[in-house]
């Protein structure tokens, strides 16, 4: 069936459509009630179905005779360690760690906080929680103690599972002191901590509270998965909130399983036995959906990569992994390829590897700028697919279909996230809630109900779901992103709605200005933010990082870039303030911290987010931009 027909059917008859897709799941008890409304006036999917997400990811494949297939590959250039785990081996380890958790009185509905680096034990802990029906909350390893304490207080975990350390390119981060400090700060105190000791750091354990991972595994036995309801929570994942308090996005079991299996088949085109690499981290939603659950549920091989796109050891790291493990699909953030392109603009490293197994590249996490899109297409000669989704949705809202229903490739468009995916009724509304014409920018919203797999609620605060997402446009989920749909039906996401600036009454998209700047051959990446101006209200300010090997002077480049903005957008968007800098402040997932930049430039007190990759970048920028406010 053509994508347009699939999409129309999913919106016209959502219950019928998703009842059919639910057959992808090996339920313990198949659902009869497909869509219903719960006590919080929110919708539930497959409410009377029963299943277990760990069973779907592991035991099911062993039962189907695929136990010897590789389930997980661990590749750690920062330690030099490589390991593979078959489905049979991974199932055994998970079943034993579930028993280790059960020995600490963890049962269905209890919370377990996981604070781990990108090592196989992170996946084992997540899946063991799912096996018990316990709810895991993964916190990115290395988060500061106070941020960890906030999440401990909200989730109230019975147990914390962690490793002794995480390893960065130039340093080792001891986790146990951060955990001890966080528990001391937190009001809620977990009963136990289970610590996996790594060779690089031996954590000291507190008697009576802390337990050694391997000691617990040595006495554990394999236990079977527990049946849970479709609507029982699988995990809580905290995402940043406008109030400063993180939002605990809750994912259910049943809708999530359907969405994972549906998307692996229909969005990524994966089959059992294929190798799928989501180059992300389990601390983010991509890691939950497509490093652990979706990939394993689909019977594919997943890769845990403990390294970076560059400097571990070089800009060919990603290509090496793809060649070595015959990766079929690579999924990562645009910032990874911008970093690779900055170090290796001619793609010389790419030529060193046999990438014949690689079929497609998927990008998400931030907008894929046209320059990076064209660079990737030119260097790899592969389909480059930008697709758009959020922590809250758990899977892709928009993507370019695999084919047109007749086996023909569907064209991608530079700057576009593709077409809305079946189940997502994406619309563009103006400030009055009216639909805007094709090509005109507005707020990107999704008409309710959301399809399976999206957020079930905000943990301990269901009212925040309504106030944060549903109140602005009744009947719609507000994504917080601005964009437009063109005449051909392609969706363009231009950035967060708070990244639209008002210059003397003219609304300008900073994303559009960034697109113009990044098109210059010397620019590796850039950010444009609106800063306060007494006369015009706001004016744009640009920060640009230049590629390696550029010989043009900074002054000449700044002149060229300013003129390019004036020519392509107009005088009203004139970038009087344009600075060339060494690095942009980013989250660990690669998003540029535009709010932090605005605060810095406007002379406000800087709120350094817990998700920042390197706080030293803020210090450098504060020094560089110290006089902007005065000038």
UniProtKB/TrEMBL annotation:
Residues 512-591 form the AMP-binding enzyme C-terminal domain. Its EC number is 6.2.1.1. The keyword Transmembrane does not apply. PROSITE patterns: AMP_BINDING. InterPro entries: ACAS_N, AMP-bd_C, AMP-bd_C_sf, AMP-binding_CS, AMP-dep_synth/lig_dom, ANL_N_sf. Keywords: Ligase. It is an enzyme of class 6 (ligase). Residues 6-56 form the Acetyl-coenzyme A synthetase N-terminal domain. GO terms for molecular function: acetate-CoA ligase activity; propionate-CoA ligase activity. Residues 66-448 form the AMP-dependent synthetase/ligase domain. Belongs to the ATP-dependent AMP-binding enzyme family. PANTHER family: ACYL-COA SYNTHETASE (PTHR43347), ACYL-COA SYNTHETASE SHORT-CHAIN FAMILY MEMBER 3, MITOCHONDRIAL (PTHR43347:SF3). This is Acetate--CoA ligase.
């Amino acid at each position: 069936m053509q994508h347009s027909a699939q999409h129309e059917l999913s919106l016209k008859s959502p219950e019928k459509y998703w009842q059919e897709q639910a057959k992808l799941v090996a339920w313990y008890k198949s659902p009869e009630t497909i869509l219903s409304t719960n006590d919080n006036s929110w919708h539930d999917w497959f409410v009377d179905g029963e299943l277990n997400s760990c069973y779907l990811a592991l035991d099911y494949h062993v039962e189907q005779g695929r136990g010897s297939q590789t389930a997980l590959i661990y590749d750690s250039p920062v330690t030099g360690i490589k390991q593979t785990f078959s489905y049979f081996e991974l199932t055994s380890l998970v079943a034993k760690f579930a028993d280790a958790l059960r020995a600490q009185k963890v049962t269905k509905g209890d919370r377990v906080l996981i604070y781990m680096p990108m090592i196989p034990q992170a996946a084992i802990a997540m899946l063991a929680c799912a096996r018990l029906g316990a709810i895991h909350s993964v916190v990115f390893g290395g988060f500061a103690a106070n941020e960890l304490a906030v999440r401990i207080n909200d989730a109230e975990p019975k147990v914390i599972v962690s490793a002794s350390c995480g390893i960065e390119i130039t340093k080792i981060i001891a986790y146990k002191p951060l955990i001890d400090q966080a528990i001391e700060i937190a009001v809620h105190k977990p009963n136990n901590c289970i610590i996996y000791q790594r060779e690089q750091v031996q954590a000291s354990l507190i008697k009576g509270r802390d337990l050694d991972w391997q000691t617990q595994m040595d006495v554990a036995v394999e236990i079977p998965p527990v049946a849970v309801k479709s609507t029982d929570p699988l995990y809580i994942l905290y995402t940043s909130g406008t109030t400063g308090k993180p939002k605990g996005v809750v994912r259910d079991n049943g809708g999530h399983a359907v969405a994972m299996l549906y998307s692996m088949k229909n969005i990524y085109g994966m089959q059992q036995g294929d190798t799928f690499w989501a180059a992300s981290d389990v601390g983010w939603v991509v890691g939950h959906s497509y490093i652990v659950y979706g990939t394993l549920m689909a019977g594919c091989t997943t890769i845990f990569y403990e390294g970076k796109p560059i400097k571990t050891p070089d800009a060919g790291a990603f290509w090496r992994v793809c060649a070595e493990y015959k990766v079929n699909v690579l999924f990562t953030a645009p910032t990874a390829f911008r970093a690779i392109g900055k170090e290796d603009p001619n793609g010389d490293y790419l030529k060193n590897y046999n990438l014949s197994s690689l079929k497609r590249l998927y990008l998400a996490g931030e907008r894929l700028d046209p320059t990076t899109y064209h660079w990737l297409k030119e260097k790899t000669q592969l389909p480059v697919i930008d697709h758009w989704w959020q922590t809250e949705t758990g899977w892709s809202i928009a993507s370019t279909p695999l084919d047109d229903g007749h086996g023909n490739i569907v064209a991608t468009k530079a700057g576009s996230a593709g077409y809305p995916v079946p189940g997502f009724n994406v619309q563009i509304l103006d400030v009055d809630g009216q639909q805007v014409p094709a090509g005109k920018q507005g707020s990107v919203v999704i008409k309710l109900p959301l399809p399976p797999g999206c957020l079930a609620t905000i943990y301990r605060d269901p009212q925040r779901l309504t106030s944060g997402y549903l109140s602005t446009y009744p009947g719609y989920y507000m994504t917080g992103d601005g964009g437009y749909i063109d005449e051909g039906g392609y969706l363009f996401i231009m950035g967060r709605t708070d990244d639209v600036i008002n210059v003397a009454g003219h609304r300008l998209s900073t994303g559009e200005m960034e697109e113009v700047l990044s098109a210059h051959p010397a620019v590796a990446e850039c950010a444009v933010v609106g800063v306060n101006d007494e006369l015009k209200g706001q004016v744009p300010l640009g920060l640009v990082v230049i590629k390696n090997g550029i010989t043009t002077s900074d002054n000449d480049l700044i002149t060229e870039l300013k003129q390019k903005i004036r020519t392509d957008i107009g005088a009203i968007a004139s970038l009087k303030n344009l600075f060339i800098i060494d690095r942009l402040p980013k989250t660990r997932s690669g998003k540029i911290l535009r709010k932090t930049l605005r605060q810095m430039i406007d002379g406000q007190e800087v709120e350094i987010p817990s998700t920042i990759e390197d706080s030293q970048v803020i210090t450098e920028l504060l020094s560089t931009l110290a006089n902007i406010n005065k000038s």
